[in-house]
Amino acid sequence: MKVHFKIWRQQNAIDKGRFKSYEVDGLTDDMSFLEALDHLNERLVLRNEPVIAYEYDCREGICGQCGIFINGRAHGPHDHMTTCQLHMRSFKDGDTITVEPWRAASFPVIKDLVVDRSALDRIVEHGGYISAKTGTAAEANAILVGKEVADKAMDAAACIGCGACVATCKNASAALFTAAKINHLNSLPQGKQEADKRVLEMSRQMELEGFGSCTFTGACEVECPEAISISNIAEMNARRAKAKWLG
Q: How many domains does the chain have?
């Protein structure tokens, strides 16, 4: 299998960047997309050329590190899939494949396909946790959680923080990510005590990081690898309005 890669190359955050073309053969249908990039990098090493920088970790669709745009779509041509789970059988022999980093002001490019997504970490630092006294762990069943509540919390907690929702949104909004992190804790009994503070501080940090506003186009839900519903955003907005009114 042979494909034509058009890959964004950018030396650092100051560099303007540009697309560079590579002809790559020797690929197989069962190769993952990241393995195809590995294959290309091996060729570049042999030619003494700079390798392409891109992120990955688990390669199992769990960590969310592998986010890139492939032919204009976050993570590639399929719905609800991470880049590392995409295989070359999704393309045809001779295809031109355009690869570029996330495009958002809050995700500055570090090098090539690698962007700085630490803005998402800073949102989590402002309430994406439950405060608890240290010491002996409480009995796991001390606080009973109904199945409906547990399922709702787990659906939101499935967010892997890849940033596809931000990158695909025309406003570069982080509302889906932030809402998922808020709602999965606020839904549980353990998170109720800090619920109002959590929604106010995390949503405020989201705005301070320069993310855009949500206009409910639904693109984030389509591109989310975990198919997290935009109903989470509506719930976050309602919780925020209530917290402001009570505060």
A: 2
- The tens digit of pLDDT for each residue in 181-190 reads 999 999 999 8
Together in a domain, 122 and 226: yes
Angle of the 147-157 helix axis to the 175-186 helix axis, nearest 10: 150
Looking at the structure, tell me whether residues 79 and 159 fall in a common domain: no
Q: What is the pLDDT of residues 197-223, one digit of tens each?
A: 999 999 999 999 999 999 999 999 999
**pLDDT mean over 144-165:** 94
Backbone angles phi, psi at 201, to 5 degrees: -75, -40
What is the domain range of residue 209?
118-246
Residue 107 and residue 198 in one domain = no
Minimal CA–CA distance to 40: which of 65, 91, 6, 81?
Answer: 6
Q: Edge to edge, what strands does the sheet with 18-24 contain?
A: 18-24, 3-9, 96-100, 69-70, 73-74
Residue 56, domain CATH: 3.10.20.30
* Pair 167, 103: CB distance under 8 Å: yes
Yes or no: say if 83 and 66 are a contact pair by the CB < 8 Å rule. yes
Confidence of residue 147 (pLDDT cuts 50, 70, 90): very high
What pTM does this model have? 0.93
| 134 & 239 share domain | yes
